[in-house]
């Protein structure tokens, strides 16, 4: 008898929930914003600091304000003198000049050097591989990286992949562009002419074959 009542309550609850959901008009979220990388060709690449990076800040003749700092998820760091210094999206040199400007309030002619450890970088600078890759994932960009390098990192294609119908999505001049890439020719047939340069922020979509 008790189990019968419990099941009846569950059924009624499910029906009420379905009624509520059916009566609600769910708003549609806007599409994700894809940001254009500052790297427009393979020779213009400069590493940008991102959340999760560790930055070493050396202030000449001022060891008390020097140190190693982890970039917070909000893209900022806190030093012994200044809280909430924005660092994400800057090159190490740009950050050094920013810190010099900030420290000039407290120190006379500060000279700052910034180096980076534990490279993560901004999400927008990563290369993302989705679909029928053996290990779909986001990859940190490395200078002069090519499609072949990316496919090695994701373990190649699955047996269901349609590699020659894959596309590469890239933001150029504020617009989303799509390029056809021949991954199967590259990694299965050894067609090196199918290898292409990739840039920070590229998205590679590998569809499933229809047969």
Basic shape: globular
What is the CATH level 1 assignment of the domain at 126-206?
Alpha Beta
Report the major sheet: 5 strands, mixed
Order of helices and strands: HEEEEHEEEHEEHE
Poorly predicted runs:
none
Say what oligomer this is. single chain
Tell me which CATH architecture of the domain at 126-206 applies here.
Roll
The CATH homologous superfamily of the domain at 126-206 = Outer membrane lipoprotein wza domain like
First-last Cα distance: 53 Å
> Number of helical segments?
4
Structural class: alpha+beta
Beta-strand content bin = 15-25%
Radius of gyration equals 25 Å
What is the number of strand segments?
Answer: 10
Q: What is the helix fraction of residues, given as a range?
A: 10-25%
Topology:
Blueprint: H1 2-23, E1 54-59, E2 67-70, E3 76-77, E4 85-86, H2 92-103, E5 112-117, E6 127-131, E7 137-139, H3 147-153, E8 166-172, E9 175-181, H4 183-187, E10 203-206
Parallel strand pairs: 6-10
Antiparallel strand pairs: 1-2, 1-5, 3-4, 6-7, 8-9, 8-10
Question: What keywords describe this structure?
Answer:
three-stranded antiparallel β-sheet, five-stranded mixed β-sheet, 211 residues, globular, Outer membrane lipoprotein wza fold like, 10 strands
Structure description:
With 211 residues, this protein is an alpha+beta fold. Among the domains are: 64 residues, wza like fold (2-Layer Sandwich); 81 residues, Outer membrane lipoprotein wza domain like (Outer membrane lipoprotein wza fold like, Roll). The chain contains four helices and ten strands, in the order αββββαβββαββαβ. The strands form three sheets. It has a five-stranded mixed beta sheet with strand order 7-6-10-8-9, with no helix packed on it. It has a three-stranded antiparallel beta sheet with strand order 2-1-5, covered by helices on one side. A two-stranded antiparallel sheet has the order 3-4. A hairpin with a 5-residue loop joins strand 6 and strand 7. The radius of gyration is 25 Å and the shape is globular. Its main location: membrane.
């Amino acid at each position: 008898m008790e189990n019968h009542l419990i099941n009846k309550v569950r059924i009624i609850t499910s029906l009420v929930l379905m009624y509520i959901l059916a009566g609600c008009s769910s708003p549609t979220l806007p599409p994700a914003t894809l940001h254009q990388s500052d790297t427009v060709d393979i020779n213009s690449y400069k590493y940008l600091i991102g959340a999760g990076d560790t930055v070493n800040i050396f202030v000449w003749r001022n060891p008390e304000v020097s140190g190693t700092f982890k970039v917070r998820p909000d893209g900022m760091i806190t030093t012994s003198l200044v809280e909430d210094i924005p660092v994400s999206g800057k090159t190490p040199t740009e950050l050094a000049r920013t810190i010099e400007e900030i420290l000039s309030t407290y120190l006379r002619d500060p000279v700052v050097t910034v180096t980076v450890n534990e490279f993560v970088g901004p999400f927008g600078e990563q290369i993302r591989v989705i679909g029928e890759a053996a290990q779909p994932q986001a990859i940190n960009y490395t200078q002069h990286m090519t499609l072949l390098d990316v496919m090695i990192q994701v373990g190649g294609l699955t047996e269901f992949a349609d590699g020659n119908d894959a596309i590469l999505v890239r933001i150029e001049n504020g617009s989303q562009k799509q390029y056809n890439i021949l991954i199967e020719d590259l990694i299965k047939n050894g067609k090196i002419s199918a290898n292409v340069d990739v840039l920070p922020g590229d998205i590679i979509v590998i569809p499933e074959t229809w047969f």
